[in-house]
Design brief:
The complex is a heterodimer of chains A (257) and B (379). With 257 residues, chain A is mainly α. Chain A contains eleven helices and no strands. Chain A is globular and about 70 Å long. Chain B is of the alpha+beta class and 379 residues long. The chains are: A mainly alpha (257), B alpha+beta (379).
Chain lengths: 257, 379
Amino acid sequence: MKRSRFPFVATTLILVFLYLPILVLFAQSFNDARFGGSWNGFTLKWYKLLFEHRGVITATENTLIVAVTATLLSTVLGTLAAWALHRFQSRMQKVHQVLIYGPLVVPDILMGISLLLLFVNLSVPLGLGTVIVAHSTFGLSYVAFVVLGRLQEFDHSLLDAARDLGAGSWTTLWRVLLPLLWPGIAAGALLAFTLSLDDFVITFFVAGPGSSTLPVQVYGMMKHGQPALINALSVLFMSATFGIVLASQFLLRKRYD
Amino acid sequence: MPAFFEFRDIGHQFGKTPVVEKVNLSLNRGEVFSLVGPSGCGKTTLLRIAAGFIQPTRGAVLLDGEDITALPPDKRKINTVFQNYALFPHLSVFENIAFGLRVAKKSKTDVTRAVGEMLELIDLAEHARKKPAQLSGGQKQRVAIARALVNQPDLLLLDEPLAALDLKLRQRMLLELDRIHEEVGTTFLYVTHDQTEAMSLSDRIGVMHQGKLLQVGTPAEIYESPESSFVAAFIGDTNFVVGKVRRIVDENRFVLEAECLGEIVVWRDKPVAVGDQVTVSIRPEKFSLQKTRPATNGETSNSVPCKIEEVIYLGPQTRYWVRSADQLISVIQQHANYLLDETPLAWGDEAWLTWRANDGFMLNAYREADEALLTLPDD
């Protein structure tokens, strides 16, 4: 029987569809033309200019502060939420689960508006703090989601075994539970980190003056007509995100059996 | 001598459903004791009560004379071999075995020495660095045993430890368990639904059914003189003969008017009076099956005509289902020289079924439901 060519053709088309825009962006970032209509030769000057751009540097700093803090917060809270959802039996658990997963399906723009209204009503000044809180809310959901998946295949008799061998609750946590959940927790944390890096809509609403993150900064530069700089910034940004996603995939794949 | 380990009047219920009722049981130091029963009989609950994972609703657990009912599992000198092994997948064989010692903050040299000894005992020294996922089922089982024994527990609990292994491996592991017990001398409390496992390994057996401990005794006592129809039918296979006492022959025998088989002579191992309703249990291998009428003495043995309804060749023996009057009886015969000096009995043959009065034993309690446990087909 002749092997069908269909899978090959379909895969190629999908890859072209997904990555052609990114390839164009990548190429343009090295194009020595201000508006990228034609190829004027290879250059690294956009990258050079980028590293001298005040706004970009501040935004990068902001982005990293927000992403690291929000990731820490959402990892701890998300892991605890997943544990509570998995471990305790209650009629309300289904409801809790939906509530935790809510931010995954609620449109970002609604999340942004509602958070903004909340901060305004509580008269919280908009700044890095509000961005961190906002990012933690959706980060938490993603971490809980990933860790819960890991917990589903967790063998609870291991906890019995640890207790049986003399381990108290803390020892069991440190020596058995956390080592086994660690790949899931780390993968969830990396996911939360990338989402925090990428988020535009929610940040746009809750960021105050001087607390813009990179995506918001890119949007601003777009309006001021610096497409070549944005190309270079996007390539760097995308590479970082891509690296983190790859790492998280690798961690999730790690299994013991 | 006070019991080494004791369940004193243990009762437990999940919600309103009682799962264990009024269990009193004492273990002697160093013995292998098996709790046997069908799934859901409460044996695993009892084991988890011993380990400390379940607080019994009633009663007390005593170890070496000390009440340990309220102690959590990590404070008891009792270790468990779990049914699915429950080895830590992220730790090597060595670290799995060392887990209890590390938690107890034993010195490095102590840990290395004790784990090394255990690895010798279970013959897995060359696999010390492997992860559990790289081991076979039997090897995992041995690691689980070593991980429990390295803590030198007063009592080792084994929860269906061989259930996940195939038949040949199970038989080998039974011998292995026996050898390990001989070397370490720890008291074993072994839970299984497999009566052959229990029989071959244990000093004593306790048979459980519906949350109650029905009978405790050595394997031979349990097999040869079960007190109830459940024990008779669950441990091994048997036939029940129901009837009324017609007359007492002497202090050792009486004549039973059996519902189907007519008048038969029965060994009088318990006091009976004329007119009593009695159930007698006769094991299939106690019968002998012949083509011609045997010259039997009607005073000490019985002989009834029967018809062969089914012949099942099992290798070492042959199982027959024969019908006499209206009762279907399961019979097992060893064959000496199959096909050489005997023509085998075949389906539809007429034959004679013979057994001695003392081949049957009287049951204290009979429930018709226990007939379902027999290998005989529903009549």
